[in-house]
Every structure is written in C-alpha cells, then in structure tokens.
Amino acid sequence: MREISNQGRLPRRHVLLGATAATLLAAPSRLALAALAPTPRQTPGPFYPHHLPLDSDNDLVRITGHAQDAAGTITHISGRILDVDGQPISDAKVEIWQCDSHGRYHYVDDRNPAPLDPDFQGYGTTVSARDGGYRFRTIRPVPYPGRTAHIHFTVTAPRGRRLVTQMYIAGEPLNQRDPVLTQMHDSAARAAVIVALAPASEVEPAALAGTFDIVMD
User: Fold this and answer.
1) 24 in a domain, yes or no?
2) Does 39 reside within a domain?
3) Is residue 6 situated within a structural domain?
4) CATH number of 89's domain
5) Is residue 31 assigned to a domain?
C-alpha cells in the first residue's frame, strides 16, 4: 500500500493542493481569530464497510496491483482538522468512504444492481499532519438512489474524540431534496459541509479539487 504524504515533496500526480488550498493551509492565524463552529455531525449511513480493503490508503483511485485507475472524475480533497479555537489537531485518523461511479458501495451488502467498479478502492484512511492537514485522491462523488452526491467522513482525534459527518458538492441539483442534508435547517451548518469543486489541472490533468476543513468540538 502507498500513502499520499501530507508533508514533503510529492510525485507530480500526487500533488494535491492547488493555489487556493495551499494558501489556506499556510494561514492558520486567520482561522484562529475567532471561535469556529463545529462541523455538523451526521449519520454514518448503512454503508460503512463490513470489512476494510487490503489497500486502504488515501488514494482511492488506484488499487495496488491493478493496471488502471477507477472510473470517474479524479478529485483531490484536502483540508485541515481543527479545534474550535482554530488550532490544528495532528495525528487524527481520517476515514472516508463513498460509492463508485456506478453508485455502488463496496464491502457492504449493497442491493444496488449496478455493476461494481473493481478498480475503485471505496474506502481510504490517512492521519492528519502537524498542521492538521489531510488529503485524499478519489473520484467526484455521484448520486445513488435516494441520495445526492456525498462522501462520508469519520475523524478520530488522538484522545478518542470522534466526529462522523458527510461532505456534499456545491451545485448538485439533488442537494435540495436530500433527506440527510435537508435535515439541517441552519444555513451556516449546511454551508459547512458543502464544498465547491474546481478544475485543478495544475494538480493533475482533468482533475477537480476542493477544500473541506473539519472542526471538532
């Protein structure tokens, strides 16, 4: 298994941060000027893996030993794990899981009859760096029956604090009808879990990138 490093120089296809994200990661002082609202907690859903894949690093697009990448639009998600005072939380375990480009979850009893993408990892994990930074290389999430496009996140801090939440994509038409997202009636809470994706050809050709900072109470 390989891990996309949170520190140091990376191979070109694994450089995850565009200019916007790099600026954010370099400026923790601005985030610490005022208390931050905790990221809203959300259901883990019924699709957390029953068993974890042998390859469970933070690159969900390429499985060790497979000849090709997963189907879908490659998307780089990065951000920082922070406390409410804007201070970084290092050594936090960050897990994500999502359906593949066909709308199928892996390693669960998914009744979706769509074909399974054998080249998609489905689940990944990493550990936050000293500045709280984390990063994943995955695919742009897609809707599946009954839900808008989203990525599940779980963050476990070193002292055992745990946050389960979900990340949504700005501009998705189904956001307005999603049964989980629409339960949040506070507009600021909804905005905290909705991330804009933008072209990031400077990161990887034809890829997208977005920043999702997670605040733990």
Assistant:
1) yes
2) yes
3) no
4) 2.60.130.10
5) yes
- Per-residue pLDDT of the chain (217 residues), as tens digits, is 556 655 443 443 443 444 444 444 444 444 445 689 999 999 988 789 999 999 999 999 999 999 999 999 999 999 999 999 999 999 999 999 999 999 999 999 888 899 999 999 999 999 999 999 999 999 999 999 999 999 999 999 998 899 999 999 999 999 999 999 999 999 999 999 999 999 999 999 999 999 999 999 9
Q: What is the DSSP string of the chain?
A: -----SSS---GGG----HHHHHHHT-HHHHTTSPPPPPPP----TTS-SS--S--SSB-S--TT-SSPPSS-EEEEEEEEEETTS-B--S-EEEEE---TTS--SSS-----SPP-TT---EEEEE--TTSEEEEEEE----BTTB-SEEEEEEE-TTS-EEEEEEEETT-GGGGG-TTGGG---HHHHHHTEE--EE-TTTSTT-EEEE--EEE-
User: Which domain, by its residues, includes 17?
Assistant: 12-216
Task: Answer yes or no: are the C-beta atoms of 113 and 148 closer than 8 Å.
Answer: no
Predicted structure pTM score: 0.84
Number of independent structural domains in the chain: 1
Instruction: Kindly provide the b/e burial profile for residues 13-44, where b requires at least 16 CB atoms within 10 angstroms of the residue's own CB.
Output: bbbbbbeebeebbeeeeebeeeebebbbebee
How far apart are alpha carbons 57 and 95 in whole angstroms? 9
